[in-house]
Amino acid sequence: MALGTATAPYELRFDAGRACLDLLSTTHPEERLDSVDVLRAWITGSGLVPADTPLTHADTGWLLAFRELRAQIDRLVRCRPRPGVATYDLALARVNDLARTAPPAPRAVRGEDGQLLRRLDGPPGCAALLAVVARDAVDLLTDPVARAALRQCEGDNCPIVYLDTSRGRRRRWCSSEVCGNRERVARHRRRAALSRA
């Protein structure tokens, strides 16, 4: 489901560089986590679980919990830590609390062809999956190198935050295929309009 362009609300993107940042991307250009089915697709697409993990037990409570975690991570990523800022401190406490839960336990099992495959020990619970994303956010926020590589997309009206791991740290857009392409098309149209004038 990770598509090169994001034109429909059900398309999900996984190009921000971290699972916690990919979760933030689900608000643009509009709410994408609008159903349990989309949440299941996001959980699988983000790599939180192996592709064939059944998530039929996910319900609307999961959807609300992931949206709430997304809001807390957004506060932490977009704000600079300053002592005494209540919203930041509350978001930090909530993310830390969610990170305490043990993540799903992986196992290596033989596939039909004899190759080892990653499987989960049992159906993952919501708290365990939230813990994976919360731990990813804790790792990101406590790593000075990674935190320094956080960028906001320079695309027109794009609020996506991504991890810039490009050579020279010169990446400008959340996705070259989405925002970068829009910028190149706009630049071409401006040049064409100037040449006609």
Automatic annotation (TrEMBL):
Pfam families: ABATE, zf-CGNR. Residues 150-191 form the Zinc finger CGNR domain. It comes from Streptomyces iakyrus. This is CGNR zinc finger domain-containing protein. It comes from the Bacteria.
